Amino acid sequence: MGSDARDEDGRSDSLMIAHYDQTTNDVKLVSIMRDTYVDIPGHGMNKINAAFAFGGPELVRKTIKQNFDIDVNYYALADFKGFPKIIDLLAPDGIEVDIPYEMSYGIGMTLHPGKQVLHGTELLGYVRFRHDRLSDFGRVERQQEVLTKVKEQIGVSSLMNLPKLLGVADSYFDTNVDNKTILTIGKGIVNGKSKGMETLRIPVADSYEDKRTNVGDVLDINLDKNKQALEEFLSSKENETDDASSSESNGSN
Asked: Is 80 helix (H, G, I), strand (E, B) or coil?
């Protein structure tokens, strides 16, 4: 979960589910759009980002379980102030992106069009921008793009930086994942030569409609279709070919 200190009602600004398979070393990332209209236990229908405001990480977990039948074991709440510091430790050489047009409104900086290498603070602006025709959909794509590229850069040097990384994380992250588990996952990703990260967006294409409700504009989703897509994405078999996996992932984003 990503939080924005400027969000006075305390809603989560971004919500992702990360999945790591210790056997195959596969890494998968699911982004749930913050306006997804769901049933929040004890509070009725609302945008999924309201769950954090109503009951913190535990209610977010219960909301995901009730609506999508996914039992999330751990949580990490990230303060956006810490994002640039963590990114710069994991990807000290920066991340190359192709900016399609000028981005400035709402991010406290101006990013100009073209291919360029961005570092922590600039990348934060890049992944937060949503004032274009794609709105939050474009922002989710950029978030997944950056995290995928960061994952590709994780190597032995990242493991060497883990003690420093964990120290920085203590100041900006609230999590129930212990350091031993983080270290185990980090070693598994590096030593297991994990492949690229697969991504999925919820709601998937052609499974929702824009709707105005008493809680504002929402994404009214076909819950069964999205539950099925999420289940298939997280439980894909180890013996699937790379081409099939790539095709499935691209079709879902």
From this structure: coil
